[in-house]
Predict the 3D structure of the following.
Amino acid sequence: MKKHLVTLALFASMMSFAQTIKDGIVTTDSKRYLKDQKFDGRQHGWFVSGNNSLLFSQSAFSNWVAGGVNSFALNANVDYEFNLTREKHIWDNRIVLGYGIQTNKGESSRKTNDVIDLTSSYGYNIGNNWYLAASMNFRTQFTEGYDYSLDPKEKISNLMAPGYLSLGLGVDYKPNENFQVNIHPFTPRVTFVLDKDLQQKGNFGLKNDGDNTLFEFGAYLGARYKLQIMDGISYDSRLGIYADYLKKIGNMDVAYQGILDLKVNKFVSAQVAVNLLYDEDQIKKTQVKQTLGIGFNYKFDNTPPKVEEASTTAFIQEAPIFEEKENTIEVATNILKNEPILNETKLVTQ
């Protein structure tokens, strides 16, 4: 009789949690043990992705009546991203390096691409995909650049001439990994000109001959949009606008980059890149650079497939949950007999 009473008491205690165990799965009937957790649209953890490309183009002529110049061009690019998402924190890092040369018959090699672009951005989620943000960006080039339209050619750039370092504070809007908007009203920027040949008044905004830095304080508005047009065709675009509070209204630096990638197979792709730049400190004209090439391309990305659910359900720590792979009656019987439980039983407090 005593054993029967203990058995009834044990089952009553289990039923008070309104849980059912079937095939090792616990289902809870009472809504008060459940709460909804909204899915924020982003994967969490460390994610690393990269794009390595070596593009080339070539022209050759022999007895061609219409004429032409033999030429060969090579363009190498790397684009790595190291991003961390953990709870309300986001830390995005990007490294973009590129260098290209072109050789025409009878002329020396000339560079067609030269960029060092490093970006790091931290954000703290304040709700609805908005983040309090702080960012850093550094840009320069590897080697000397020349204006070949002049005779003799004239040096117009070099490593750290110019070099740009900007720090921004503001808010970011990041609903997912493919789209973001940056609004940073507090963005100081320092322009470095460390090549003495280029330290002349007016170059890159320098106020006096011999100056090697220029300080600006303004606002930055940026956006990035990545689009998978179809399988094997993707488009990545970036826009940046900087306005200096210390200059006249309307004097803004505008930079745009768009890259269309057409994948042939795992290692071969064609790429079209367009760069637009307007910076009165350099030249009061819109600068345009367009490149087209086909070559070797290798991408890697450890980002897992996107989660489709709009929300998830989690147990709150209000009551213990028994998780059992076998029938509950067997567990209760073994307890009453003071026998070991052959099938592992765990107490879960999710």
Summary: Residues 98 and 219 are 27 Å apart (CA to CA).
